[in-house]
Amino acid sequence: MVKPQPLPAPRPDVAGPPPDPQADRRRAWLIAALIVAFMLVNYADKSVLGLAAVPIMDELHISNSTYGLISSSFALLFSLSGLVVGFASARVSSRVLLFAMACVWAVAQLPVLFVASVPALVAGRVLLGAAEGPAASMSMHALYKWFPKDRRGLPSALQISGAALGTLIAAPVVTWLISAFGWRSAFAALAATSVVWSLLWWRAGHDGPYGHTPAHGAAPGSRPATRLPYRRLLLNGTVLGSIAGAFGASWALALSQAWLPAYLRTQLGMSPGRAATLISGVSAFSFVLLLAVSPLVDALTRRGVPSRWSSGAPQGIAVAVAGLAMAAFPFADARALLLALITVAFGAHAITFPLHYMTTAAVVPAAQRGAVFGIVAATGTLPGLIAPYLTGRLLDSAPSQSIGYTHAFLLSAVVMLVCGLVALIAIRPERDVRLLSPAG
């Protein structure tokens, strides 16, 4: 008689009951803190060019179109790298991916320290964009490995708030560095910061227990339990609506990072310090919204409110409201009203970023989540390639800069309104989970 062989112990990353959420709680929040810092550095890197736009344009004698081209070059490989790394995340740990990204960020800041020229700026921005393309999606993927489905609202908000904090902190600090030591000093400081973060992450960053099994921390039937064709995943309404929301929000973000500092200085006559203060105020508004909305989403989810209303509708409404505020810029006569509209237009869309990841994750198997996050990020962030350069062209072709900015803001408002409406209508996670299920 053949002696029965003992069954192999189930691998904790692919099967078995979820671990006690309290066991690694401190580690989970340590990871969350490091990821917030990661996003802070990420957005400081993105915003430094816009904050230094005026002195760079003056020193290098470049036109609005050329500056817009430099800013848009950041997005040349941004979407492609997000797509490639998204698929790689199924085989490569988040620890390695985020460490490599931060190291490349540091290298990308170096060209302008040796040769201050348009080609050097373009080279640095292209490399930085390639390394930052997967940053938001992969850091969110890493974060989701440490928190179950009904506890992701606050961590997601904190991850995205790193962007708001990046601008909130970077705007005054980077502006001070530029004013006191020249614009190159800001690039050097950010390179050093990236190196420090990468060393801390390599020591502490590890993949969490919720990384591979859909059942871990999720209610039964909450999402498809098997791998599905990517065509089916990408063509369902929830993912398409999430992409639309991200596209509209990213349009406002790209416009803010590339042109808002220059607009405040050249059209509203603000000093560098006052412009930085206003930009920090916009980021503070975003930060408050993020901390208020995402925990509310978690609470609504635990009470059984459909995801369409708890996390789908808010992102569509946020993008549409931001678009309406931007459309009102040319008609705001009072300065205080204009500043309030600027705050809403460039701050209200922020809640879309954590929510569009949550709605996407609701219909995608965990094993395919990183890849789909990469695809959503790649398509949703295309405005970074379009908006800065298009705005520069509008400024150079208009009879005056004031008219050029009006045209740019009205065009942006239309894009954001359309995207907000698509997200509002298309995002229906519960319906799409049923359609993607084997019986659907």
Write the layout of secondary structure elements.
Blueprint: H1 25-51, H2 53-60, H3 64-73, H4 78-88, H5 94-108, H6 111-114, H7 118-132, H8 135-144, H9 153-181, H10 183-204, H11 230-234, H12 237-266, H13 272-302, H14 307-327, H15 335-347, H16 352-361, H17 366-380, H18 383-397, H19 401-426, H20 429-436
Helix pairs in contact: 1-8, 1-9, 1-10, 1-12, 3-7, 3-18, 4-7, 4-17, 5-7, 5-8, 5-10, 8-9, 8-17, 9-10, 9-13, 9-16, 12-13, 12-14, 12-16, 12-17, 12-18, 12-19, 13-15, 14-15, 14-16, 14-19, 18-19
Please give a handful of descriptors for the protein shown.
single chain; 440 residues; mainly alpha; Growth Hormone, Chain: A; 74% helix; disordered N terminus
CATH architecture: Up-down Bundle
CATH homologous superfamily descriptor: MFS general substrate transporter like domains
- Measured between the Cα atoms of the first and last residue, the distance is 46 Å
How many β-strand stretches?
0
**CATH class identity:** Mainly Alpha
Amount of beta strand = under 5%
**CA-atom Rg in angstroms:** 22 Å
Q: Globular, elongated, flat, extended or rod-shaped: what is the shape?
A: globular
SSE succession: HHHHHHHHHHHHHHHHHHHH
Main beta sheet: none
Estimated structural class: mainly alpha
Can you count the helices? 20
Query: Mean pLDDT score, rounded?
Result: 84
